[in-house]
């Protein structure tokens, strides 16, 4: 699908975060960072077992079913396979978390990462009590 995968009313984003939390619990993941943009999302996930592909299939597939039902659509919501990078050094982990947090700033959607509601940044920086996922 070209275009937005999350509606402007934010209901889709809330639903995605609920589904992400379910996926994290189901596949025993740890989420270091996330950011929901209009037409894509970023996750920084740590897995304890080799469940990344299964979990991403579940997350994207279940969200696609929700999105298509909600918006009377059919077909794919996400294009192609997800991109995964193996992170072996803490310095790179921090660089990726920073990249994810600053994504809406680089896209000129907000002036600061703190202003973007759909990211883990505010909880990570101590502006909110806990991550919503």
TrEMBL record:
<dbReference type="InterPro" id="IPR036515">
    <property type="entry name" value="Transposase_17_sf"/>
</dbReference>
<dbReference type="InterPro" id="IPR002686">
    <property type="entry name" value="Transposase_17"/>
</dbReference>
<dbReference type="GO" id="GO:0004803">
    <property type="term" value="F:transposase activity"/>
</dbReference>
<dbReference type="GO" id="GO:0003677">
    <property type="term" value="F:DNA binding"/>
</dbReference>
<feature type="domain" description="Transposase IS200-like">
    <location>
        <begin position="1"/>
        <end position="103"/>
    </location>
</feature>
<dbReference type="GO" id="GO:0006313">
    <property type="term" value="P:DNA transposition"/>
</dbReference>
<dbReference type="Pfam" id="PF01797">
    <property type="entry name" value="Y1_Tnp"/>
</dbReference>
<protein>
    <submittedName>
        <fullName>REP element-mobilizing transposase RayT</fullName>
    </submittedName>
</protein>
